[in-house]
């Protein structure tokens, strides 16, 4: 009988890598990417000039976001075979929201960042005839600020399906699943506050309940794997 040890290690490793890539995008992506990831608007009189000056860093940040998206989408593939044995609906909910929709969000974010870089270069080349480009750049930047909460909501719906599946199957300790449930609530509050421009600076702290849980759960899956008794019950 399969122990699904490889599935646990792969899912945990991808989970952990996805989180690391997400942090890396904010750290190495420069002030433009960092402002988008942290939901902190840039205060600069010449936005596209700043984008052009930070083009290399933005490209690095876009690469990290791309890798984060690929890691987290692939993670669902390794969890689905076991989760569907408990509940097909919950397993599909995880794949749809944490896989397809969240992955689409990351792809759109990457394309928007690369388009912003292209606009920055065109802005410098256009010189005085660049008012329209400046407006386009601001709209694209604002689009990112709306896209973030929408992607976050898709992520949280998928995460809820995932935590319910883990709680029901007991593949990992239930305290980890409960920690995830608890973390979803303030994270959802952050997404809604940010979407309606009501975030007064507490958004970072609202995310910090769930963020460490994902790191711990990823490491748990890599080091400990699934509970074998739970695997046997699902396979029976």
Question: How widely separated are the two ends?
Answer: 10 Å
Please mark out the parts with pLDDT under 50 across 5 or more consecutive residues, or reply none. none
SS-derived structural category: mainly alpha
Indicate the multimeric state: single chain
Q: How many E-type strands?
A: 0
Total number of helices: 10
> What profile does the largest beta sheet have?
none
What form results from the Cα inertia axes? elongated
The helix/strand series, from N terminus to C terminus, equals: HHHHHHHHHH
| Cα-based radius of gyration, to the nearest Å | 20 Å
Helix content: over 70%
Q: Roughly what is the average pLDDT, rounded to an integer?
A: 92
Describe what this molecule looks like in 3D.
By secondary structure, the chain is mainly α. It has helices at residues 5-28, 30-37, 47-53, 55-86, 88-126, 131-169, 174-195, 203-207, 211-223, 228-235. The longest helix has 39 residues, at 88-126. It is elongated.
